[in-house]
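# step 3/5: fold
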Amino acid sequence: MSKLWVIVLGTAVAAVVAAGLYLNLTSTDAGISQAMASDPDALVVEVAADEHIIGDPNAPVTIVEYASLTCPHCAAFHTEILPEVKKQLLDTGKARLVYRDFPLDQLALRASALVRCALPLQRPAMLSLLFQTQATWARSQDPMGALTQIGRGVGMSEAAANACLQDQTVLDKVIAQRLEGEQKYKVASTPSFIIGGKLYGGGLSVEQMVELVTKGDL
């Protein structure tokens, strides 16, 4: 077991996971009026060039999403809300969305690792497929086998997918991203969004997200 995973298990949240319980920290739709800024001062979020970015990398507004691949609310955002957000904000160059991992359980951790092991051009399709079929693979009697099949569906070999799901180096990187979100930005639920230096916990509608990007005090 890696040292980093030991650190995670030391937290109250990970302790629940270690006990074998499904961890569900998803929140209901919060709405703009209930959105919470984690600090009176704007959060400064640095984005690396190799992160999962949707939209123009040079867009003036950055939307950072923290999500878990086993979170139903996250799946709802990606399948129902994101397509219109992409049309109105991302494709028009008004904003970019940076996807970050915040796994709520071991299965989400492995799924996140699988996305990271895919080739850059394969990752958007894999992420979309995982959210679209979440109810199937996440509830499968053999979820790891289901993840392997998803990997094969976007061009990975079975051997590569299986190796990825057990690659501790990749798993540690996913865990590190969750830890950063939790400790640095005070992320406590999924999905959570950082827009204009403020943290919003809970689902946001298309209208709310457009308002925050185009009319908010950014």
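# step 4/5: annotate
Residues 5 and 175 are 7 Å apart (CA to CA).
# step 5/5: archive (pending)
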